[in-house]
């Protein structure tokens, strides 16, 4: 937070001069052009950085190619499995019926960890309307 605040004018300048207002350097590399290990490392770095970095700063074809998008979706599903202790809850949280990035991804810190708390229950309205 302190880093963002001390560099706020620069972030605003970069956002004004970027595509869609995201102050990230867009990638020109396809997710399908790199080996799986390298792709996973890029996804992991973006996941750790948070924000819109995962979609805006990893690969250029995540929203253009179904196959490329699947690599990102598989990564996100694997992260949910790593974080959420209850496998049933993890399965409910995984994106399956839409391409990753076509619905807003959780950008909050520790979003998935919240579902490990004893006072939190996930209700799936599709299963229990």
What keyword list fits this structure?
129 residues, 44% helix
Give an overview in words.
The protein has 129 residues and is mostly helical. It contains six helices and no strands.
Distance between the termini: 39 Å
* Approximate strand percentage: under 5%
What is the helix/strand order? HHHHHH
Q: Tally the helices: what do you get?
A: 6
Tell me the total number of β-strands: 0
Assembly type: single chain
The 3D shape can be described as globular
Tell me the radius of gyration: 16 Å
Helix content: 40-55%
Question: What composes the largest sheet?
Answer: none
Low-confidence stretches: none
SS-derived structural category: mainly alpha
Mean pLDDT value = 89
SSE blueprint:
Layout: H1 2-6, H2 8-16, H3 36-49, H4 53-56, H5 66-83, H6 87-93
Helix pairs in contact: 5-6
In short:
By secondary structure, the protein is mainly α. The protein has 6 helices and no strands.
């Amino acid at each position: 937070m302190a880093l963002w605040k001390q560099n706020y004018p620069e972030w605003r300048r970069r956002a004004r001069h970027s595509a869609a207002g995201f102050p990230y350097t867009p990638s020109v590399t396809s997710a399908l052009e790199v080996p799986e290990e390298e792709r996973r490392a890029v996804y992991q770095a973006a996941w750790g950085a948070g924000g819109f970095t995962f979609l805006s700063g990893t690969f250029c074809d995540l929203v253009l190619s179904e196959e490329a998008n699947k690599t990102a979706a598989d990564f996100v599903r694997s992260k949910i499995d790593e974080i959420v202790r209850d496998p049933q809850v993890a399965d409910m949280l995984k994106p399956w019926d839409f391409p990753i990035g076509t619905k807003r991804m959780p950008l909050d810190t520790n979003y998935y960890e919240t579902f490990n708390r004893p006072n939190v229950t996930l209700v799936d309205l599709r299963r229990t309307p």
